[in-house]
Amino acid sequence: MKDARIPVTEAEKLADRLKRTREAFGLNQADWSRLVGIEPQAWSNYEQGIRRISIDQALKVCAATGVTTDWIYRGLMTSGLPTEVQLNLQRKRR
């Protein structure tokens, strides 16, 4: 039986990283969406895994926050994430 809290597929892992990233900044979805310039409904779909974030949208997140596409798409924390964000992500690791 699959535990609903543990992402299994790559799409689920990506959605989980997006949610954890937002949470690491301490923002709700509305405030996060304003920060990164993505419509709230679109962001909600990304976090839920309903839609996969496009590279263009991911680059908006990177430009606004300093996170990397390596983190968003591959889950690599060692590739230039801002230190405070990396620490917050590690604290929120599931």
Tell me about this structure.
The protein is an all-alpha fold and 94 residues long. Helices cover 62% and strands 0% of the residues.
Low-confidence stretches: none
> What's the total number of strands?
0
Terminal CA distance? 18 Å
Radius of gyration, CA atoms, in whole angstroms = 12 Å
Order of helices and strands: HHHHHH
Gross geometry:
globular
> Which whole number gives the mean pLDDT?
88
Oligomer: single chain
The total count of helices amounts to: 6
The percentage helix is: 55-70%
Main β sheet profile: none
The fraction of residues in strands falls at: under 5%
Structural class: mainly alpha
What's this model, at a glance?
With 94 residues, this protein is an all-alpha fold. The protein is 62% helix and 0% strand.
Give the tags.
globular; mainly alpha
Write the layout of secondary structure elements.
Elements lengths: L9 H15 L4 H8 L3 H9 L6 H11 L3 H6 L8 H9 L3
Helix pairs in contact: 1-6
